[in-house]
Design brief:
The protein has 2 domains: about 140 residues, Lyase, Ornithine Decarboxylase, Chain A, domain 1 (Beta Barrel); about 240 residues, Alanine racemase (TIM Barrel), CATH 3.20.20.10. It is about 25% helix and about 25% strand. Strands 1, 13, 14, 15, 16, 17, 18, 19 and 20 form a 9-stranded mixed β-sheet that branches. It has an 8-stranded parallel beta barrel with strand order 2-3-4-5-6-9-11-12. The chain is globular. The relative contact order is 0.15. Bound molecules: pyridoxal-5'-phosphate (PLP). Pyridoxal-5'-phosphate binds next to strand 10, strand 12 and helix 10.
């Protein structure tokens, strides 16, 4: 029996399978592409599974955690990240969640506006603490192209670069806070290495200007990420050959002393670290033809793997059929055909892929969506139509390390 079929027999379908060895290999590759002095944050939004976070937070090249919610903070703490090293960010931080975060021991925050900084300061003061804050900047312009652009345009993220001069003084003197540097995150999933390099260069130059022209402190500089990964289709993680040298050169010009730790430089990544560690196994439950179009109905829809559908974009998704066929068809699937891959939800929006080239499938076939380790389960409409969440299995070598399912329960809200 194939390994995938065996796992589905044990844990059910749909099923996410994450390989911890691949998670560690991705970290090693990313570390090798960056200067060794760099701090590397794992962004839990890509996959908040505590055991995946634990794999990234321990061992050689350990990452720190970057979180944006209480749920992610809980995962990070469960994974063993020391609270005092966690970076807490996001554009909608409330006083209540900040209170919980500071209570838990978090002392590093990325702040998105003067108001956000004041809110962090007020909560820190209540706890007799001082919060080290990175100012997230929405630069005036941006260099690269990517699939997901986050700055250079009007945005809920960061403080507009051109307004910094007006608020510089205020930013330096908010009680309960210590402004320690800047945070940039201009893009996700950069198209190529050149784009990534020019984006990082712009951020480093902008940070140097903030220090030189506005006198803002720059002891900690988080230049963000944008490291790419294939998503739901075939493909390998890019290997960045030039990045390290280019970063070192640019930092030498603008932040001499960075190599000795005068300025701590950080990067962040979600998808690069975990994207290729995971695959989604799903079964064909029905096949039908409607007005000449073939529909393959899977037991996983946008409730299981809906991150991009939620953003209004369909993925160039691909599937492979398990060699050990379990459907009603016999032997090797014959020839490719075009089909629309849909899930089980009662909405026409439950589409994973339109006109996808698939082998001739039969009901019961087990198919695999590759590169599904990032923005999978928790980026999906998990509760829509009240179906159970998929199980998530972690493997290392031949061993199943953990098998869990995210459950939700309706609970009484305390008044
Ligand atoms: C601030 C910040 N950090 C990190 C990430 C992770 O991005 P990726 O998974 O593409 O590495 C994001 C993604 O939106 C982000 O907004």
């Amino acid at each position: 029996m194939s390994r995938r079929k065996e796992l589905v027999q044990r844990f059910g379908s749909p099923l996410y399978v994450y390989d911890l060895d691949r998670v560690r290999a991705a970290r090693q590759d990313l570390r090798a592409a960056l200067p060794p002095q760099f701090t590397l944050f794992y962004s839990l939004k890509a996959n908040p599974h505590p055991e995946i976070a634990r794999a990234l937070g321990t061992g050689e090249g350990a990452c720190r955690a970057e979180v944006c919610s209480m749920g992610e903070l809980d995962s990070a703490l469960e994974a063993g990240f020391p609270a005092a090293e966690i970076l807490y960010g996001g554009p909608g931080k409330t006083a209540a969640e900040l209170d919980q975060a500071v209570r838990a021991g978090v002392r590093h925050f990325s702040v998105e506006s003067v108001g956000d900084l004041r809110r962090v300061g007020a909560v820190a003061t209540d706890h007799d603490a001082v919060a080290d804050c990175l100012l997230r900047v929405n630069s005036e312009s941006s260099a690269a192209t990517s699939s997901i652009r986050m700055t250079g345009t009007p945005s809920q993220f960061g403080i507009d670069g051109e307004t910094l001069a007006d608020s510089a003084e205020e930013l330096r003197s908010v009680p309960g806070t210590r402004l320690v540097g800047a945070h940039f995150f201009p893009l996700s999933n950069a198209r190529d290495e050149e784009s990534l390099i020019s984006e990082f260069r712009q951020s480093i130059e902008a940070a140097a200007r903030m220090r030189d022209e506005l006198g803002l402190p720059m002891r900690f500089l988080d230049i963000g990420g944008g490291f790419a990964a294939s998503y739901a289709g075939p493909g390998e993680r890019p290997r960045y050959q030039k990045l390290r040298g280019e970063l070192e050169q640019t930092l030498d010009v603008h932040f001499p002393g960075w190599r000795e730790g005068e300025v701590q430089i950080a990067c962040e990544s979600g998808r690069y670290l975990v994207g290729d560690s995971g695959e989604l196994l799903t079964r064909v439950t029905n096949i039908k033809t409607s007005r000449g179009r073939k529909f393959v109905i899977l037991d996983a829809g946008i409730n299981t793997f809906g991150g991009m559908a939620g953003l209004g974009r369909l993925l160039p998704l691909s599937i492979t059929v398990d060699a050990d066929r379990t459907g009603t068809g016999e032997g090797e699937p014959q020839g490719d055909e075009l089909a629309t891959l849909v899930g089980p939800l009662c909405t026409p929006g439950d589409i994973l892929g339109r006109n996808v080239s698939v082998p001739a499938l039969s009901e019961g076939d087990l198919v695999t969506i590759p590169n599904a380790g990032a923005y999978g389960a928790t980026a999906s409409l998990l509760h829509f139509l009240s179906r159970p969440a998929p199980a998530e299995v972690l493997v290392s070598g031949d061993e199943v390390v953990s098998a869990t399912r995210l459950e939700t329960a309706r609970t009484r809200v305390p008044e």
